[in-house]
Design brief:
22% of the residues lie in helices and 33% in strands. By secondary structure, it is α/β, with parallel strands linked by helices. The chain has a 5-stranded mixed beta sheet with strand order 1-4-3-2-5, with no helix packed on it. It is elongated and about 90 Å long. The mean pLDDT is 80.
């Protein structure tokens, strides 16, 4: 009986469990492509969709982070191959360090830009696809380990 009264009226000590350090990842939903997803859309709808993506990038203060080009292989002659980019996948991110809990909060927007829109995208976003982003084109995974040296097991 005394134990029950102690449990009801006694001071409870709550156990302090800190959050482990880590990161949160927030992907801002946009369309998959720079422009409008509807192939039958008129030019004003496409321009509006493009501007909305650029406005989100500026509003959230995202920085250019990664690009991955997709190439079309064409043979120049029998000995040389020439690669022409047909599209690029861009990723803009912002990292905010939260001092409480030692967390990093990452916000990302990513989408694909077709070759015909490269110049327009660079002008609207104020970035250069070749200079401002980290190019991840050559780091594709083909089912093999990409490490240069073997892993110690």
């Amino acid at each position: 009986m005394i134990e029950m009264l102690k449990n009801l009226f006694g001071k409870r000590q709550e156990e302090y469990v800190p959050d482990p350090p880590g990161r949160t990842f927030n992907r801002v939903l946009t369309g998959r492509y720079f422009g409008c997803e509807d192939k039958n859309a008129d030019e004003t709808t496409i321009a509006k969709a493009k501007q909305e993506k650029i406005d989100q990038i500026h509003e959230l203060e995202l920085l250019p982070k990664f690009v991955r080009f997709t190439y079309k292989d064409t043979k120049k002659d029998e000995t040389q191959e020439e690669k022409h980019p047909i599209s690029v996948h861009v990723a803009f991110q912002k990292e905010v360090f939260a001092e409480k809990w030692n967390m990093i909060h990452i916000t990302e927007i990513s989408f694909t830009v077709y070759h015909s829109d490269f110049d327009e995208f660079e002008k609207m976003a104020g970035v250069s696809l070749t200079e401002d982003f980290r190019n991840l084109t050559s780091t594709t995974f083909n089912g093999r380990d990409r490490r240069k040296e073997k892993r110690d097991i």
